[in-house]
C-alpha cells in the first residue's frame, strides 16, 4: 500500500517539460519525460519542492527523533520482508566469537580483526567515532579502520590493478588493512596513533573556524616493520541509510553526472570494479572510494576484512592474514559442515544484505522553514549540487519491489572527485587516485549527533562540525568552499540549518 501511494504521489508530482535524461531501457518515452522534469534542480527557494520531505521515497518513516531513528525498516516493506529484516538486524548486531566455541554458527572471528560485530563500527546504524574526539570511556578505534597500500611503481603491479586482481597493492606483511585485535595466541597487528594540528581559518564577518589536521602512524607493531613506502588511509564507518535505494539508481543516471558541473571546473569519474560473482567490470557505488559495486559485495568485504569471517564472495576463513603471518593459518575456523563451507553461509548473507538495503530514511524536518530554504538557496548557488546531486527516480526494474520507481533525495552523484591535497590519502583503489573520494550521500546527516553524539564527519572523522567538513573541501570543490568562506555569518548559519534539516 505504501509503495502504491508513493508511486501515485510521484505521478502527481511529475510535470511534462523540455529536456531529457540519458536513455534508460527501464522507462518508456512518457516516463523519460516525466523523470526529466521531476529531477531538474529547482530554482524556486520560496517553498519546499513536492514530496521533498519524503527523502527515501515511499520507504521514508515518520518516527520519534531519538538515537534509534536510523534503525527502522523501510515503511513500504511487506510483512514477510519485515521478518527477513529483523533476522538481518539480529545478525548485524551479533557479537562473533573465535573458534572453537559452544555457540553454533557464531564462531570463526578472526584470527585478526577490527571488530566483533557490524554494529560495533556502525553505531546504531549511523557513523562511527574516532579516538581523540571521543569521551574517555570510548577511546578505542574500532570504528576507524586503516587501509594499507603500496604505490603501483612497476608495470606488473599496474597490470594486477588493471586486471582487477587487487584493488590496491597490500603491505607484504600486514596486508590490505590494519587489524588492531587478534584471537588468543596471536599478536594484534598494531594500533593507530593520531596527532592533530590545529589550523585556523578566517571567515568573512570576523568569524574564525579551527580545523584539526591529522597525522597518522602505527604503534605496537606485532609482526615487524612496515614497508617504507606504505601509505595509510584511515576510514570511518559510514551510516547505513538508504543503501538499497542507492543500488537502485540507474547506472546511466550516474554516468550522466560526470560532466554536469564541468563548466565550473567539476567533473566526476566512475570507479569500475570487478564483480566477484561474474568477473565483469561494473560500476562501483559503495565505500569511500566507490570500491564495491553493490550492498552484498560491501557487506561481504566487511565480514572478511573487518571480522575475518568467510562468505561466498570472500571464501578465505583467514580474512586479511598474509603469507608472512603463518601462525594465522594454523588457527581453527568456524565453518560447520551442516551449515555449508563458509563461516557466514549464503542464507545468512542474504539476511544481512536485505537488512542493509532497507534501513529507512527519516522524514526531512523544517523543510518550509525560512532559514532552511535560505540555506538551500546558498547550497544550490554555491554549486554544491554539482557533486551532491539532489534527487533521482530509481529503476522501474530494481531487484527489490520496494525500491522501484521511487523519487529519492540522497544528495550524491556516486562518482569520484579530486578533493585536493588536504584530504588526499595517496592511496589508489581501483580507478580511484590518491586525491579522489566518492561523493558521500547527505541524507540523514542532520541527525548524525542524535544517533551517535561522538560521531564526526569526512572519511576519517577529522571534521567535528558540518562547517569544518565544508572547509576541508579542496580540489574540484575549492570554489564552492571559498564561496562559503565569503558568505556573511547569517548565510553560513542558514547553510548549516539546511544541512541539519536533511
Automatic annotation (TrEMBL):
Signal peptide per UniProt: 1-18
The Cytochrome c domain, residue ranges: 370-502
Molecular function as annotated in GO: cytochrome-c peroxidase activity; electron transfer activity; heme binding; metal ion binding
Keyword list, A-Z: Heme, Iron, Metal-binding, Signal
Name this polypeptide is given: C-type cytochrome
Amino acid at each position: 500500500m505504501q509503495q502504491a501511494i508513493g508511486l501515485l504521489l510521484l505521478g502527481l508530482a511529475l510535470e511534462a517539460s523540455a529536456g531529457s535524461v540519458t536513455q534508460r531501457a527501464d522507462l518508456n518515452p512518457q516516463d523519460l519525460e516525466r523523470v526529466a522534469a521531476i529531477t531538474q534542480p529547482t530554482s524556486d527557494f520560496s517553498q519546499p519542492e513536492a514530496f521533498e520531505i519524503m527523502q527515501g521515497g515511499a520507504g521514508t518513516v515518520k518516527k520519534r527523533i531519538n538515537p534509534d531513528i536510523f534503525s527502522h525498516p523501510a515503511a513500504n516493506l511487506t510483512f514477510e520482508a519485515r521478518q527477513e529484516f529483523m533476522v538481518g538486524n539480529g545478525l548485524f548486531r551479533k557479537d562473533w566469537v573465535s573458534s572453537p566455541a559452544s555457540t553454533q554458527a557464531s564462531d570463526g572471528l578472526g584470527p585478526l580483526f577490527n571488530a566483533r560485530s557490524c554494529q560495533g563500527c556502525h553505531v546504531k546504524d549511523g557513523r562511527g567515532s574516532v579516538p581523540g574526539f571521543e569521551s574517555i570511556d570510548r577511546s578505542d578505534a574500532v570504528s576507524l579502520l586503516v587501509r594499507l597500500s603500496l604505490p603501483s611503481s612497476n608495470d606488473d603491479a599496474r597490470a594486477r590493478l588493471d586486471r582487477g586482481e587487487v584493488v590496491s597493492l597490500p603491505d607484504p606483511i600486514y596486508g590490505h588493512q590494519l587489524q588492531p585485535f587478534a584471537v588468543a595466541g596471536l599478536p594484534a597487528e598494531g594500533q593507530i596513533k593520531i596527532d592533530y594540528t590545529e589550523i585556523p581559518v578566517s571567515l568573512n564577518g570576523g568569524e574564525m573556524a579551527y580545523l584539526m589536521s591529522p597525522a597518522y602512524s602505527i604503534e605496537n607493531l606485532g609482526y615487524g616493520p612496515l614497508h617504507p613506502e606504505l601509505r595509510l588511509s584511515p576510514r570511518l564507518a559510514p551510516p547505513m541509510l538508504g543503501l538499497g535505494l542507492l543500488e537502485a539508481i540507474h547506472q546511466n543516471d550516474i554516468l550522466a553526472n560526470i560532466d554536469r558541473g564541468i563548466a565550473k571546473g567539476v567533473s566526476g569519474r566512475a570507479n569500475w570494479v570487478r564483480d566477484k560473482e561474474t568477473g565483469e567490470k561494473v560500476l562501483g557505488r559503495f565505500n569511500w572510494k566507490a570500491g564495491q559495486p553493490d550492498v552484498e559485495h560491501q557487506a561481504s568485504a566487511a565480514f572478511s576484512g573487518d571480522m575475518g569471517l568467510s562468505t561466498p564472495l570472500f571464501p578465505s576463513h583467514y580474512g586479511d592474514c598474509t603469507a608472512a603471518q603463518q601462525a594465522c593459518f594454523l588457527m581453527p575456523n568456524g565453518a560447520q559442515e551442516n551449515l555449508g563451507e563458509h563461516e557466514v553461509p549464503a542464507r545468512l548473507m542474504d539476511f544481512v544484505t536485505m537488512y542493509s538495503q532497507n534501513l529507512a530514511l527519516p522524514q526531512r524536518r523544517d523543510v518550509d522553514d525560512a532559514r532552511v530554504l535560505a540555506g538551500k538557496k546558498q547550497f544550490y548557488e554555491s554549486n554544491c549540487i554539482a557533486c551532491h546531486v539532489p534527487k533521482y527516480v530509481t529503476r522501474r526494474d530494481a531487484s527489490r519491489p520496494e525500491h522501484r520507481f521511487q523519487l529519492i533525495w540522497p544528495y550524491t552523484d556516486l562518482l569520484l572527485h579530486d578533493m585536493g591535497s588536504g584530504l588526499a590519502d595517496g592511496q589508489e583503489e581501483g580507478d580511484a587516485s590518491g586525491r579522489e573520494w566518492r561523493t558521500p550521500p547527505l541524507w540523514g546527516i542532520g541527525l548524525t549527533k542524535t544517533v551517535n553524539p561522538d560521531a564526526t564527519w569526512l572519511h576519517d572523522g577529522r571534521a567535528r562540525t558540518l562547517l569544518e567538513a565544508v572547509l576541508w573541501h579542496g580540489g574540484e570543490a575549492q570554489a564552492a568552499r571559498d564561496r562559503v568562506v565569503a558568505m556573511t555569518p547569517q548565510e553560513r548559519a542558514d547553510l548549516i540549518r539546511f544541512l541539519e534539516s536533511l
